[in-house]
Records
---
Amino acid sequence: MGLFLIIMGVQGAGKGEQARKIQSKYGIPQVSTGDLFRAMRSRTDEFALKITKRMDSGELISDEDTNEIVRQRLSQPDAANGVILDGYPRTPGQAAWLENHLAEQGQKINAVLLLDLNLYDAFRRAFGRVSTSDGTSYNIYTNAESIQWQFSDHPEAAYPPRLDATLKTTGEKLKRRADDASAHAIIKRIDKYLQETQPLIAYYREKGLVQMVDAAQSIEVVSQQIISIIDAAKSR
């Protein structure tokens, strides 16, 4: 029996960091639908070209096609012993398909990890996030001891102030995701999360699979709690 996990959480809850830790400890890959859709652009088969065309035209990708993309990924050898699903399923229909697909393989979802974070903290984590070229992350509100930062006004006030941050030890200028610089974009991502995730939480709660972890705790504390949840789920 493999280890199949779903990880959920609003932006800033630390899904990526915790998924990497799970991957390292249990040897199962993180499967992100965002990555899967981007990978369609590197393929030349008929199915991938169809998906790419729909994405380029702004069409929504159907549950059927999304499920097929996931099915193809789960059929790869590195997913034989399980995966961490991030960003999938997004609808109860996708969740039902996944359950049936895994059952056909003699597998099941072991746990749904819900990283719980209040929305104010979620906003601060996204809006204040900066990182080095190697991906080390800092935050001007919660993890700023090693950085220098300030908001710089546009000379003609034509644009909102720009966040400038540097690493104290090296002077490296830190990067900021473009969508993190827009409060409106952050709020839209939070709204989308709420709209898509609440029905799924209810769906999986009915099945007794949701395991909530307080994501406001330190990364290591959250990680230890997740490990305890996974180890308990594996034994059932």
---
Amino acid sequence: MKPFPISISDPVKYPGPPPAQADAVVIGGGIIGVMTGWEIAKQGLKVVVLEKGRIAAEQSSRNWGWVRVQGRDAAEIPIMQESATMWREMNDSIGADIGLRQGGVSFLAKTKDDLDRYASWIPDAEANGVDTRVVSKENLTDVLPGAHGDWAGALWTPNDLRAEPWTAVPAIARAAAADGVTFVENCAARLLDLEGGRVTGVVTESGLIKTKSVVVAGGAWSALFLRNHGISIPQLSVRATVAATAPVDNVHNGAAVDHHLAFRRRLDGGYTLAPAGFHELFVGPDAFRALIKFAPQLVKDPLGTRLKPFAPKGFPDAWGTARRWSANDISPFEKMRVLDPKPNAAKVRFMERTFQETYPALDNIKIETAWAGMIDATPDIVPIVDTVETIPGLTISTGMCGHGFGIGPAFGRITAQLATGKTPTHDISRFRLSRFSDGSKLVLGPNL
């Protein structure tokens, strides 16, 4: 297993060309787009998934690899439970080891107040039959034997899962392709083709695909694509740094996070590390537009976001990135095939040192590689999954706020239901697009 996310240098596996017609087109080849396409194909429909770079090359191969119910927004819990079931089914059926293992998830509390805040989630867990419990300081060694830290206790869900991002989504895509999904890499969607305000196709860099149903699941790029069609969503992208250690002794078989560090056992014997509660926002035009809507989140966690004045050239919210283009123009999506931010080197050193301090018995910890990804976030820390009233035939599934990998299978199923005119099997009113414009008070998700 290669311990690094997929990149633009990886070989194209789905070269196309795209077909001239489809029942549905999905824009974005991350886990949401792949699962949406697969679920549409299971309905016997002809579906195309367009990816401007490589399948799963952005956040879907750059995340922590957690597949957790713990700490989810109340509206997400039943969806995540279905997703966990889908993960288990895929692990048994797709013919590849995607690293799915049950090791549990622990949120380690720094203070008694933190522990009380974590415990406030338990009523939501109990209402949905989730086995989550508070572990006292005295009993922490039962959950994290050998770990050193001055923690007040933990919230622990033993049934939560983990999987390997850079192997899982490509393996799922292979299974979906075998079921009839047409994937096309290196093929950016430039514009929607509209007649009378309705979707009639997608203009790609390789030509027009006629269709009556389009899903935008472009992650960090979704807001930019939609803005060119007059749809404004308050979505920003923040840089998150991740690192992978070389193989070491198995000191913890699950995933855990405290106020400094998140870590997760990997299939290759190493650990994936990430700085807890730390991300970086490159300030650009969209950040200024959305500042008021994001203010409650910033006030709640004023130290969690570090502001950077300029995004690298070509990033979705960079000052020089085009906001308007025509069908004949080379779009921003073609100018940057894979969003590949550099990791924060200081944080990588910090994570190595902190993991060593957490497990002093490990004397051979070495960072093998590090990377970063851009997490698409919304002001209330829950996604946007909805159809667009002003453009019939258009569905949006974006803003997963760093939680998309684990919940992706079920949200893909829901998105497919929306895109094909079916009633979703879950209540998704919490994720409606109109909450940002209908005067509703935004309610922050738990963000545990």
---
Amino acid sequence: MDNLLVQLKSLQEKNKTLANLLNLELKEKEAKKLQAEQANPDFWRDQERAVKVGQALEKIQKQLQPFTDLEIDLKELKELVSLAETEAPELRGELELKIIDLEKRYQDLEFYSLMSGVYDDSDVYLSIHAGTGGVDAQDFALMLERMYLRFCERVNFKIELVERSLANEAGIKSALYKISAPYAYGYFKSEHGVHRLVRISPFDGEDLRQTSFALVEVTPELPTESLPALKDEDLKIDLFRASGPGGQNVNKTESAVRITHLPTGLVVACQTERSQHQNKATALSVLQAKLHQRALLERAGEIQEIKGGVVTASWGRQIRSYVLQPYQMVKDHRTNYSTSDVNNVLDGDLKSFMEAYLRFSAKEGAEN
């Protein structure tokens, strides 16, 4: 049994190292601070603040729970191994299987060590826009939307629709979602960029191979104190009626909101809430997050020309290609990671691509 105890001790040490790398001690202190605030008799007098505190605490607890559970199970199994050494040596095979299971759980948690960016543990806004390629591009945008919805189902991420614009013939023109989960931005930042589809067009009677494009934008949700201030004179606010499939009006009042940031040309719309006030607040929050991300990219030199330097969803800019004809392959052009299982990828199996990108980014950061 000695070698089993050595394995368990090694796994405990690795789990603690990973917890330190992810600054979980700071998160535990923040959780205790929020719990103390909840215990205050006057906590619910400010309901807006109370809701935010509850959401923040729930998010931290979800981040901490897998590590806490693993540590508890390691201690219990260590005690069981020590006991079995003298009293039940016949349990060795069963104990070895339990250790294998714990090692697998640790490997799953180790994935989070790749998410050390400032905003990697933030929730995320995911927007999809049809690019060049006509109806095929709009249909491709719908395929990407389904792919991300299926991914969120697979990993139990909460996803909320903010705005969606249907195309006339097929597919969507654009869609904007908020995704809430521990390290949501860390997962989805690999998806930011132009995506390319090659296939026999179902909308072309001549069965010609068609190339189409879609743009995916990924923006972390930022804490209120990090959001840039907005000037009223820089904003153009349009009100309109939210519409659903076929163009029918969802609401009889103009509750949907579209905000244009005049200096940059950024446009954000929200139409999912019944209240115009709620839609405006959501749109402003998304706009502020996009402006903050844009400023960070500018300072990092990743955008050559901020004014007018919009990334177009067209040839030569793609980060990933989905080829259905004449062969089947999905390839990420940054990491060179690829798979021939196109259907599984389009059904939401994206974790391998996300992990490959995170490892690629970590390597690039270490070399620069």
